[in-house]
Amino acid sequence: MDLTLKIWRQANVDEDGKMVDYSISDVSPDMSFLEMMDMHNEQLINKGEDPVAFDHDCREGICGMCSMFINGEAHGPDRLVTTCQLHMRKFKDGDTIVIEPFRANAFPVIKDLAVDRSAFDRIQHAGGFVSVNTSGNTQDANAIPIDKHNADKAFDAATCIGCGACVASCKNASAMLFVSAKVSQYALLPQGKVEATDRVLNMVKQMDEEGFGNCTNTGACEVECPKGISLENIARMNSEYLYASLKG
Amino acid sequence: MSKLESKVPEGPLAEKWTNHKSKINLVSPANKRSIDIIVVGTGLAGASASATLAELGYNVKTFCFQDSPRRAHSIAAQGGINAAKNYQGDGDSTYRLFYDTIKGGDYRSREANVYRLAEVSTNIIDQCVAQGVPFARDYGGLLDNRSFGGVLVSRTFYAKGQTGQQLLLGAYSAMNRQIARGKIKMYNRHEMMDLVLVNGKARGIIARNLVNGKIERHSAHAVVIASGGYGNVFFLSTNAMGSNASASWKIHKRGAHFSNPCYTQIHPTCIPVSGEHQSKLTLMSESLRNDGRIWVPKRLEDVKAIRSGKLKPTDLNENERDYYLERRYPAFGNLVPRDVASRAAKERCDSGFGVNKTGEAVYLDFAAAITRYGKEQALVKGYDENDALLVKKLGQEVVRSKYGNLFQMYEKIVDQNPYETPMMIYPAVHYTMGGVWVDYNLMTSIPGCYAIGEANFSDHGSNRLGASALMQGLADGYFVLPYTIGDYLSDDIRTGPISTDSPEFKSAEKEVKDRIDSFINNKGTNSVDFYHKKLGKIMWDKCGMSRNTKGLKEAMIEIKELREDFYKNVSVPGSSSEFNEQLAKAGRVADFLELGELFAKDALERTESCGGHFREESQTPEGEALRDDKNFSFSSAWEYNGEPSKAKLHKEQLKFEAIEVKTRSYK
Q1: How do residues B617-638 score in pLDDT, each as one tens digit?
Q2: Catalytic option among B338, B343, B588, B664
Q3: Which domains does chain B show, CATH number per domain?
Q4: Which residues of B touch A42 (CB under 8 A)?
Q5: Are the C-beta atoms of residues B73 and B49 closer than 8 Å to each other?
Q6: What is the pTM assigned to this prediction?
């Protein structure tokens, strides 16, 4: 396939960026999107130009490091995949592909397509844990049976990979889906219930301080989430938050 | 430094760890507050160690090259984690887990370490559940288990096909709690460039901030390397793109012995290579072998028809298929250990039975499992179990609930629906059993420098059993290192803060800067990947699934030549003071170009076959691996001596007191 790429180039957080056009040929439909980007970079290096910086690591859709806003969608046109699992067979010969970083005030650009998502880490520091010591002196794992439906729902919430697609897709750059996934995971498990009140208040407070926007229930986050994290989690967090605020 | 002391405690095997813990020196809570520890890497081992050390009261500084500690490649582990809980009541015990691990490792691991691993395995599950890790449960609300290769019990705990992710997020959450308390200082997007020794002790590291390129000095009373394995020396592997051996290799060059580099695990069930553009390989969890049956056609003409697209695998009936693992290994069948399954796949493909265009793929078929589960569900729900369509639908639902994410991943990559047609799989480099030599306390041959998780060599011998890597990472980090490190640090309570102004820090920093400048100023003609791919090809062709004297000798020469060419002709764009992925990669590939040579040297030295190391010169008439216990019952420990080819071999003789050394048989 022959393609035109329009890629966001920005040297660092302080400089202005711009879209730059490139053409690339002989792209195989079996390539992953990032393998196409590798090929493009190899060509830039051989021409003595600066390769395009982008984040990536596991390339199997689980680490959450790859980002990219492709043709107006986080992780591109395919559903339930990250950019690294998006394959070029989803595009046609002659296509123009627009590639931008995840854009949000809370995600400053580091270079080109790589952004700083450490705000997500700081939200987790505020309460994304169960306060249990790691000394091994815990009760037997089967001491508390957990209803399978709740265990399964907790698992579904816990599969969030922290990539930030929800924020990038949201017109308000809200992080509600991300935060609610962690709040839900613990709220659904007896181990997490003990600190549920403080957790939801602290995590939401940190989320607001990081400069993420509010949720207006548009639902774009759920559509673009590569792990299919459900809006139900946001509803659960809202109820947890209300309860916690009243309990005060 | 060159003396090899394993420091295994005296006494009966089952009491060694308990006795050792009772006798080693401790550091008081007040003194822990004045002791700093550096941890490099945030996978299961590094994250769990950081959290526990911080919780004990030490000041921890943790480094990872990714943008968040949660991205470390432990996250990609799929199938599960072993623990001798015996919840299934199928006869499991600490001894049996120990025995299976030693046997699976082909009697090339240290007995006392493996026993300790089995002993603490049950604590891990308790710990993780207490942290809110959502393991799979049955309808009674209790934890579910499944079976993995090389064992006859169900002891594997799992969270769908995302067990590594859930365990790592558990350890990450424990870290977050300590980061919030200020006990861990986290350095994201930082890479360790070198180890700093002061008076022969590890006293800090030189790190590079990958965002702005700044070189930083960090001091500590001890340094823990938890940076994973070196599978990416093969270029194509199931490791993450950034996974590298540089931290391990740097400490090796500073005096830490490197053990058994030739022990590499080639995992039998990975998605086959699709073309020249391939940047990495994707694993399909071993747990799939619980329900999937592996086969190739019996007749070569059927193979040809399939390759040319004239025949579909589903057109072949049972009699026309060769379920070669079930045929060769009736006792373990599709659940033989990984090394055995990989070699059997290679044997079939080398004989011309490979089922894809490149001839390097075999089938992993779920049709039988779908029917079996479907019939069971039909019975439970009171439907007609002879309604084939309904049974298929019900069976597919069960398979989806067990392996849904893996099937989805397969479909996205290969563009075929594995619920309808068998998966195609082929072996790929997955894990490295070799690594930095450590004693029973997990200390390397450099005082104050520790190695944990995949980075060390300790527990898996020459072949690791499935679901044991997660177990080892968390055992080392949560339950072993935090105890043993106190014994060493008890001598450091009066040392006070370590200065970063010493000549040792200055000279280490200068070496790092010079090396970076030399890459940037080289202005060669070939990209870093050009060399990495070439190295990978040499490794796969000559140090891969089977090895021989001629190939290994050639590999050593070719890698050395490639390394020399790399330093002359590599091109690294950009500058050293910006976010520069190519520069980071150049340093990592430079280290792989040395490690690869030592790998080949180690493989050449070991003329026996054992576990994942198969020497063509040493096999039984049936083509099985033939060990040579008389001459090779040792772990190699290589001492750096200027360059890889000149490394000096030390041998740690392996003594088995509680176990009888036998020929491994899975027939």
Answers
A1: 999 998 899 999 999 999 999 9
A2: B338
A3: 267-429 (3.90.700.10), 506-628 (1.20.58.100)
A4: 527, 529
A5: no
A6: 0.97
